[in-house]
Amino acid sequence: MRERKTMRITAIRFPAVLAFIICAAVGLSSLHAQVKDWKKIKFPSMRTFTVPQPERVALDNGMVVLLLEDHELPLVELTARIRTGSGVEPAAKAGLASIFGQVWRTGGTKTMNGDAIDDFLESRAAVVETGAGISATFATVSSLKEDFPEVLKVFSDILRNPVFDQEKIDIAVNLEKAGIARRNDDPTEIMQREFDKLVYGPDSPYARTTEYATIGSITRDDLLAFHKKYVAPNRIILGVRGDFVRAEMLDQLKKTFGAWAAGPAVKDPPPVYRTSATPGMNFVRKDDMTQSNIIMGHLGIEENNPDIFAVEVLNEAFGGSFSARLFNNVRTKKGLAYRVRGGVGSDFDHPGTFNTFMTTKVETTAAGIDALLEEISAIAGTKPPTAEEVARAKESILESFVFNYDSTAEILGQQLTYEYYGFPLDYLAKYRENIEKVTTEDVARVAKKYIHRDQLAMLVVGPVKGQDKPLDTYGKVAAIDITIPEPAAAAAPAATPASLKQGREVFAKVVDGLGGAGAVDSLTALKTLSDMTLNTPGGQFALKVDATFALPDRVRQEVATPMGQIVMLVNGAEGYMKQGPNEGPLPPAQREEILRSIWRNPLALAQRRDDSAFQVQYVGEESIEGTPCDVLLATLNGDTLKLWASKADGKVLRTQYRAPGAMGGPPGDHVMSFSDFRKVSGLTIPFKSEGTFDGKPQRSSVIQEVVVNPPVDAALFTAPQAQAAGGSQ
Amino acid sequence: MRPHSRRAAALFAAALLTAALPAAAQDVPNLDKTVTVHTLENGWTFIIYERPVAPVFSFATYVNVGSAQEVPGITGLAHMFEHMAFKGTPNIGTRDFKGEKVALDKVNETYAAYDAERRKASPDAAKVKTLEQAWKKAQEDADKFIVSNEFDDIIDRNGGVELNAGTGADSTTYFYSLPSNKAELWAYLESERFLQPVFREFYKERDVVKEERRMRTESQPIGRLIEQFITTAYNAHPYGQPVVGHMSDLDSITVEDAEAFYRRYYVPSNMVTAIVGDVKAKEIIPILDRYFSRVPKGEAPPQLRTVEPPQIAEKIIRIPDPSQPIYAEAYHKGAATDPDEPVFDAISDVLSNGRTSRLYRRLVRDDKIAVVAAALTGFPGEKYPNLYLVYAVPAPGHTNEESRDAIRAELERLKTELITDEELAMVKTRAKADLIRSMDTNLGLAVNLAESHTLFGDWKNTFDYVKKIEAVTKEDIRRVAAATFVETNRTVGMIVTETEAKPDKGSGQ
């Protein structure tokens, strides 16, 4: 499949003549006997026909209705645009409009629940759907003609009296969460999303992402309030087309919506966005691909910019067709890409983006970037659009202009858009004239004005391995971390007898997974030698850690760092630390934290399972990378540890707890993930562990050697006697 | 309304007649008066459907050749030729065909020499390099003759839109839309491109197709799953080959391969073109005769001989992948022309159409284990015995196995219980409404008509098929479900999330 050229859809209006006039066609060249060279074929003139014009009626309550008859098929289709969208939702509730858009339709009304509505509509092959965009929200109806009166009643009920049933909210939230979980699976989605953030800013409604935290904060009351504030007849434009008589349809609509009282005027501030992108190279590493996705650009223009016509011609010449520069040079001539696009984007109520993008094999990433940069520099200055290119682009737009109005669906849709954004009545007629007026100089001028090589925010999504040149060839590379922030740890639910019972049962499996009660209970000490990689504000460090803990409360840790060795030990109520020339007792808070770290090891925790101070409850199920796990919440002496244990074999794949960061500082969420489980002296021990702190990778550790129950010399845990007594540490 | 001439009045009356025909609200418009079939002596069939809503028309040329006609070594060729069909002719896309022909022959010679050397058991590295450079130089020389993308350009400058083509397992379809006064230009271009395509920029385009493969199949989890799935589900039949082709084949196919393929399959008797819109059969037929009769009759293409043997063992593949889980299972069934095909469509409606469907209500609404659950027939093609596919997108924190169990339970229900009267009525109502809705666009209609005429031998099937759905009974559904949804007939494929580093995807060429 080749990539499609998509035609720009513009809202249009024609002078109001309602007849369908056909002029006689000039005789075709069918009289000629010879097959022609295509250049010699004479075309009959296009038969003129006058486009049907929708009738516009404003009801007393402010609702605007557009009506367009179409008797070809026994259908009626209605589209409503409602003046609201995700542009007005609070940042902390990102996703509110989207959930609203879904549950408005699915959540039922005061008189009919969601399932009953589904049954009613689908048994009639009728469709009612709602959805929210950024600047506008939609409600649509498609019905066979004979069912329309009934369907309209149900539609009106949904529009005015939705109840947002909690179960349907849960389904919609589930879908959103799935979208969040899957948003890094498709490289094109990553590229588009991260690029929008670079251009509009990550907090702009035109770019921001919904997160588990924001979705989790949305309540039924929020949805009801959103509906109350924004859904009123004076904020709705309703377009209807199909097999009806205008006067009768208008009557029907007035009867249905006429008595609906207008709502108050609501003026929200317009959505914020950056006024300029930060130029430079950005990179998202994604290894499961054989291509790089490359995009570069900055802000574009708004639809009401008088340069829009010259820009349309520019876009056609630059990236709008198979013979445009991008396709011709980057795909056809250089064979670098299957998909390559670009243009100065526009939107009705905010600037679009100028961008060019392509996908190419990893081995030609730099070649691809260079090709795009070359095209950008060329069109914006070194090789401006030629008279021939401009003539060709104009011809393409003008010759295909008829496709702006080749169906009543398209005509009505455009009219709705124009009505919504307040564009003038004669925009279509003027549009064609304005394209005709565009000159080569105009196109060169707007290319220079709206395309800037030195302002490009650039982004590559793909693997590192195999790139033809390192990306820092193009300047300092900002690595973008697209790790999806985990759902916030839910507040521990109150333990119930059931959750405690199940907790104990599952924990018994955990003990088995560790090697069994016998092996666990006979553990007295453990010594490990590990290679650790630690991320700190000062950089990443490779460390060697020699640690011994002797249950229940003694730890010794020697860490070999590039700056020398650190020794730390705890012996019950005493603690000591030495780093270089500095040595002395450990501060109590740090000592206590180290003591806690002992029991956070599942081996040590398992030994405490019969303590009166120990409690474990079952809190649910979750899959870790495809492995179904039971989730437990363990508490010991007031401290909490969350564990994920594989359902299959009880292995603890993950733990989570709150504690200060590795370098001290305020507490945050530590998540430890374990893998490479091996049997050592009857115990199952993970040889690999990775830790994150508040979602960011902090350390990873690989055990090189482990000894179970090594002979333990008390001196290991005793501070050297030779230290100065009473040191002021 | 004031017609300007008798002819115009007749045209207008015809337009009114089309629109006014539906007798009862649910009936599909009667098209016998507005559709004409015209077959040339060389076998090329044209279906003309007059629909003068606006002064535009669309066409679709449906060529009865797809990836199922390929064999190992040339997978991807049907799709590759589709790309070639935009490269022009001796009259389009070149400054001087005489000179270009010589240059193109040189490209093929130098490629053959380079290819032969590099494929030797012990190639001489220096010689390979020299030969490769000679080939590259030959391409550069040939490129000098090119008027780039001229075929597309002509269509574009004359108001063409939606210019594209598609290749599948069964067929290759070419289409676009034009203002209706350009009908003769269309006839010239469409006949020229199949009469005498020139395989210029072949190796460059081969690189483009490789990128397409990397984009669609290799770099997207669903692409990876689909390719592994079909190659597993089929032991013998070429439906098991990816349409875009295996990378090693894409690295090897030559101009000669493409020419041989084109000569064998692009014969007029293998081609149906549907034209829908503001055209009149009486006016366009002489044009069709004049331009398309130039294509020689050729020989009937060979029929595919291989039949997939009955599957006797369940097949399961698990793909470890960093992305989120996806679950799919499929069962072998007959071709679209089988009498039971409408029963499978009915099953899809019950299982998968809308929020009242069984899969939606069970997996998404009630159990909340999936966010999408659907079923479809005709995968990866429909001309030959194909697969009935059921798939689910698990909800966060839920597993493939949960979706699997729920899907199996629903399939069991279809095998053991009759569906309800309400469900059966809904199947029939929706089939009719879908047909009505599909008649709203020229391009959609053109593709449907051409496909229908090829598959069933009669374009009327697009509209008559609804009657076959009407005849489906509850017992039919149970019978077909019981025979099809059987363990030994099943292929299972899933993406299993794992974040360990894995070997390079694809062949990195």
Main beta sheet strand tally, sense and closure of chain A: 13 strands, antiparallel
Question: What structural class do the secondary elements of chain B suggest?
Answer: alpha+beta
Average pLDDT figure of chain B: 91
Q: Determine the strand fraction of chain B and express it as a percent band.
A: 15-25%
Task: Give an overview in words.
The complex is a heterodimer of chains A (about 725) and B (about 500). Chain A has about 725 residues and is an alpha+beta fold. Chain A has three domains: about 240 residues, 2-Layer Sandwich (Cytochrome Bc1 Complex, Chain A, domain 1), CATH 3.30.830.10; about 200 residues, Metalloenzyme, LuxS/M16 peptidase-like (Cytochrome Bc1 Complex, Chain A, domain 1); about 230 residues, outer membrane lipoprotein receptor (LolB), chain A. Chain A has 19 helices and 27 strands. A 13-stranded antiparallel sheet of chain A has the order 20-19-18-17-16-15-27-26-25-24-23-22-21, with helices on one face. In chain A, strands 1-2-6-3-5-4 form a six-stranded mixed sheet, sandwiched between helices. In chain A, a hairpin with a 5-residue loop joins β23 and β24. The N terminus and C terminus of chain A are likely disordered. Chain B has about 500 residues and is an alpha+beta fold. Chain B folds into three domains: about 210 residues, Cytochrome Bc1 Complex, Chain A, domain 1 (2-Layer Sandwich); about 50 residues, no CATH class; about 180 residues, Cytochrome Bc1 Complex, Chain A, domain 1 (2-Layer Sandwich), CATH 3.30.830. In chain B, α2 packs across α10, α6 runs parallel beside α11 and α14 crosses α18. Chain B is globular and about 70 Å long. The N and C termini of chain B lie far apart (about 65 Å). The N terminus and C terminus of chain B are likely disordered. Classes of the chains: A alpha+beta (about 725), B alpha+beta (about 500).
